[in-house]
Design goal:
Pfam families: MerR_1, Methyltransf_11. It comes from Kitasatospora setae (strain ATCC 33774 / DSM 43861 / JCM 3304 / KCC A-0304 / NBRC 14216 / KM-6054) (Streptomyces setae). This is Putative MerR family transcriptional regulator. Residues 6-75 form the HTH merR-type domain. This protein is an alpha/beta fold and 373 residues long. It is built from 17 helices and 12 strands. It has helices at residues 9-16, 20-28, 47-61, 66-73, 80-113, 120-127, 131-135, 147-157, 187-191, 230-240, 261-266, 270-274, 280-287, 318-322, 325-329, 332-348, 350-354; strands spanning 7-8, 36-37, 43-45, 162-166, 179-183, 200-201, 215-221, 241-249, 290-293, 296-297, 363-364, 368-372. Helix 3 packs across helix 4 (66-73) and helix 10 (230-240) runs parallel beside helix 13. The two termini are 43 Å apart. 32% of the residues are buried. The structure holds S-adenosylmethionine (SAM). S-adenosylmethionine binds next to loops.
Length: 373
């Protein structure tokens, strides 16, 4: 082992922000032992020890107890990459949960300013907030099947007779002419599925409760970016179905934030939300598929983030924004700044001047993609 790969306790504490006392404690209880020695004979952490310590510290930060952590890092069923994916998933979940809590508190503060008191029940709900439990009730107001995108999905499903719809939400895009089973983790979303919609199972994409090859096809629409571990979820879809169809977007092409005036001029924070998502190529690889562009029609019926690219006034409407998780995840301050800026530019004619070429387009290439594998 190279000398520079061995780190003393003091150096590890300095780099990681953990205290020397804590590191000694982990050593004493056998959780992470510095197994190497420096050339001067001091005990030191090898590269492998550091890898283990990093996991321990991250799980600690997530609030796990030391005994649970010992089980997690010693899990013989998981290799390093699998353990990192699990850790990453937990961190993403925590981030989204925090965003949902911040949004709930903002709303409570606004209510209080107007003299509206929250009930004890509502106060407790803030702590348990999960993104779609929080925003799910606003979803159906503007989110529905866009027939031209539905046609592309239908075509990609080919002759599949049985279809699994993962992250199904309220049931948009579920083909009526095939046998469909839906998977949706949010109780709020499941409760809003219309009468007669396909049966729906409460589960996550990352662990689908079905045997191998149980379906002819599996589809996932506008949902993969919410999964704590997209690659694991896509592999699960591949496992349970012969064909996989995923509607998502490409955030890899350099300068992609400039593709859409909303992210370019008003909400660059969108970039940070996607910074740690797997690349489109990695997602395509996980299902063994290819990516096809999906242009967004100017009058798109499904109110997803990019849908109103030629109808900018729509973004001033609170209902439109609440049905798109991006606006909750960027936080109230960024949302307010973006909306105020857009309103001012619409009033002054600056938006129209800057985006003159859009009026002539019937559809726009905004990076939306259909992955078919
Ligand atoms: C934007 S909605 C899309 C719903 C529906 N597919 C549609 O097109 O209207 C995203 C959905 O993904 C679900 N979701 C979040 N995390 C998930 C996970 N790990 N596995 C499966 N679905 C998940 C959410 O609960 C939410 O209903």
């Amino acid at each position: 082992m190279e000398e520079h790969e061995r780190l003393t306790v003091g150096r590890v504490a300095e780099l990681s922000g953990a205290s020397v006392r804590m590191l000694h404690h982990y050593d004493r209880i056998g959780l992470v032992r510095p197994s190497a020695r420096t050339s001067a004979g001091y005990r030191a952490y090898s590269a492998g020890d550091v890898e283990r310590l990093r996991e321990v510290l991250a799980f600690r930060r997530l609030g796990f107890g030391l005994r649970e952590i010992a089980d997690l890092v010693d899990d013989p069923a998981a290799d390093t990459a699998a353990r990192l994916r699990r850790l990453r998933g937990l961190l993403v979940e925590q981030r989204d949960r925090t965003a949902a809590m911040v949004a709930a508190i903002d709303r409570e503060l606004e209510g209080r300013a107007m003299g509206i008191r929250t009930t004890p029940e509502e106060q407790l709900k803030v702590l348990g907030a999960r993104l779609y439990e929080r925003i799910g009730l606003d979803y159906p107001a503007t989110r529905r099947t866009e027939p031209r995108i539905a046609a592309r999905i239908q075509q990609a499903l080919g002759d599949a007779r049985t279809v699994l719809n993962v992250g199904a939400g309220t049931g948009s895009y579920e083909p009526a002419d095939r046998e469909v089973i839906a998977v949706e983790p949010s109780a709020v979303m499941r409760a809003q599925r219309p009468a007669g919609a396909a049966p729906c199972v409460a589960a996550n994409a990352e662990r689908l409760p079905f045997p191998d090859d149980a379906f002819d096809a599996a589809m996932a629409v506008s949902t993969v970016h919410h999964w704590p571990d997209p690659i694991a979820g896509l592999r699960e879809m591949r496992r349970v179905a012969r064909r996989v169809v995923v509607f998502t977007y490409d955030a890899d092409t350099p300068g992609w934030l400039d593709r859409f005036w909303l992210t370019r001029d008003y909400l660059p924070e969108f970039g940070a939300l996607l910074a740690d998502r797997p690349s489109l190529a990695d997602m395509a690889r996980a299902i063994g598929g290819r990516a096809e562009p999906v242009p967004v029609p100017w009058d798109c019926a499904d109110g997803f983030f990019e849908a109103h690219w030629r109808r900018p006034e729509a973004y001033l409407d609170e209902r439109v924004r609440r049905a798109v998780s991006v606006w909750t995840r960027v936080g109230a301050r960024a949302e307010r700044r973006a909306v105020d800026g857009l309103r001012a530019d619409l009033d002054s004619g600056r938006w129209a001047e800057r985006n003159r070429e859009l009026a002539a387009l019937d559809s726009a290439e905004l990076g939306l993609r259909l992955l078919v594998g």
